[in-house]
Amino acid sequence: MKLLFTSVLSVLFHYCFAQLNYIHPLPGSAMHHPEATIILKHGTLIDNISVLDKNLVEIHGSLSGAHSWTSRLSDDNRTVVIKPFPAFAYGEKVFVTVQSRLRTKAGAVVEGTSFTFSIMNEISAEQREQARLGLQKMETEHAQLPVFKEEDPYPLDSMPSYTINVNNNPAPGQHFFTSHKENSTSNWFSTIINNDGSIVWARDQANGGVDFKINESGYLTYYFAGWWVVMDSNFNKLDSFQCVNGYAIETDSHDFMMYPDGHVFLLAKNLQIMDMTPYGGIQNASVYGLVIQELDASKNLVFEWRSWDHFLVTDANAYTPLTNAIVNYCHGNSIEKDFDNHLMISCRNMNELTKINHETGDIIWRMGGDNNQFTFVNDNIPQHFQSQHDLRRLANGNILIYNNGNQLPVQISSAKEYALDEVNKIATLAWYYEHPDVNGNKVFSGATGNAQRLPNGNTLIDWGLATSSKGLPNFTEVDPDKNIVWEMTFDSIGYKSYRIHKYEWNPCSRITGYTMNATIKPTLVSLKWQAANGAKKYEIHYRIAGSQDWTVKTTGRTILKLTGLAASTKYEWRVKTLCTNDGAIASAFSETKTFKTKPQKDSENMNAELQAISIYPVPASTVITITIPTSGESLIRISNTLGRVVYESKTGLAGSGSAEVNVKDWPHGLYLVEVINGNQRYVEKAIVE
Question: Which CATH number fits domain 613-689: 1.10.10.10, 2.60.40.3080, 1.10.3720.10, 3.20.20.70?
Fold first, then answer.
């Protein structure tokens, strides 16, 4: 009976006091941005009502005093996001008390906690710019960039030419890359080519387009001017991402992962002004660390991991001096979710691969560098790898990296595959590839590059910034026996691509919703949409709004004229892409749009309402114009994806006409535009890039 009583007490204790397994900011940590978000994660589902408890948390800054806050539950139903406002003060200490008010779905009380963290000191615009220029110069020198002359015969706005040196039964698919000339004003070209070199698609991206690829979500993504841009398979821009909570301007171009659930992972190169005299350096050194952020489908910050909390600046390799005015001790250059949902990163300036617990933020293991925990077996070189890029988990359970090989006794780059025993910490070299010498030169790249394992077992390698001798390859595909089956070289010296990716890509694209428009004329309605990639023809469905049955039309054009519709009636319509003549291969439907027909006496009602307002251009960068032929005063209200109103004007549309809204300084992304006229409400989407 005593044993039973003890067991019951134990069960009750665990029932009443479930504990948090992730707290951000890490208790006792320092150098956080003033816009820091508090994140609490639990291992089981959280009751949303308890998240909204107004007494859940108390937040107090040593300089800024008490802070208000908002709270919400993320889409995983386990992560509580608490946003303090106003922002904290530079240099202050923050005190947080979480009361025992959260509840799990099962009814257990989540035990409260108290912790502190500190806010970074302010960095002036001049200090930040000096650090940026210094980092740019240091990384250029460290990468051992090739020297070349501006001998490219092609105009600035022309795409660089290339030669397919080998095309001997490579893996099927198309190659995705963005070419540009290092240390040059040449434009960047995001490009898709077939194995024979024929161009599927190319776009002049000015000075952007880094890491052009099909992401895990199925969308196309690339980096441009501080933003990660998302496109659909019609090459229309859908969204864009930056780091949040003060790190926007530090969003890094090395990697961006977007998953089917809408969650994204971004990297930030975070600057801190630090006293490096304990390490033989200077008192006010500019030191860069790594910040990893995960945003959920609503762009809430739900996970943040900082090198300041888990790495030491002394973890830098021997070729990253701590005595410089600029210290980039970490230099993270890849991130992805492992099969077990934990995170794997590559840190070039530490010669280290690291696995991070996605639930707690703790380090699971460290491989390579000064903190190596692994025993290496059958490796081809005793140094294993140096200044590596692009850590990826393979379908067979092994990992693949691109080993730049900086500072090795023999400077030659390679792709390396390791089989990992993560329990006993044993890394066995399973396969590697070094390119044969070309014209007596080793194929070596001091910076950039990647390796991709293809579905047929071949490996595609981007050699990055290889040396300047003519004839060295830019991209090579080899089979498992190391035979070169495909190879490409840019015709002019100095051209490169940060990464290359290959996919079997034959899209049957869904119509991009914001390209769909209905034009109402006195006797007909014209439905228009932008062409879809892979389309043979289109299937259009329309019906009176709220009715059950659709009327179906098929056309090979991107316009359909409808007649015989009911007057003064709201209709719904949608479009499906047919990618074979028999419709056996088809896309999903577009989003459903609406329009309203005019009254019967059109001559007396030329200003009759349209159900759809007109917004252009889409996307917009400076000004969006909103038009609607209606009478009387209207209200314009524009909200962001979080539902926050960012613009409202009660006099925007007076009578028939249009209104212009300046969006030049708005964050990139999707917005919802509402126009309210009397008891009528019109809704449309706008995109700001």
Answer: 2.60.40.3080
